[in-house]
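This entry is passed on directly below:
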Amino acid sequence: MSSVDAVGSRKRTRKLWYGVGFLGCVAGSLALAGPFVAPALRKHCLPYVPATDNTIKLIFDELKGCKGPLIDLGSGDGRVVIAAAKHGYTHSHGIELNVWLVLYSRVSSILSGTSRHTRFYRSDLWKTDLSPYNSIVVFGGGESMMCDLSVKLKAEAPPDTDIISCRFPLDAQHWTPVKLIEDGHNPLWRYKQL
């Protein structure tokens, strides 16, 4: 093999490794970003928007005295569920489609010392049975989603369930708010299943 052939072979090998590296970067980026982009492709677009500390305070001011099982629909990074455990809820659950946010929530719960009272599931809220929960928290995702969710809550939530809807109200055909809590651009509505 001549030195010219050896140099050409090394260049081809280097190009091959550059190509493999590039494809690996693309695949890794898709794996990490996919769960954050996928919500935009669903019927109800539910982007991840973290709850503010003030919103969490207002939620638990409203739920003061409630200790039954709580579920956060679309729990994101888990801050509402973790706060529920800190407020005395012994069964605080969060459901979320984004696998990275579920894993982050589980780690956050362990680090905050609340993991005995919290559970995080990668689950679709439309396929989750809400009947075991006395307190339900949801950060709404627009009028269409809230209309469908209102029907689901009416059918599945047990009597005396406290429901806190953040940012978007439930459908007025099915629910009448017990209270509206103003929080700047993040209003909260409290509902009670009768």
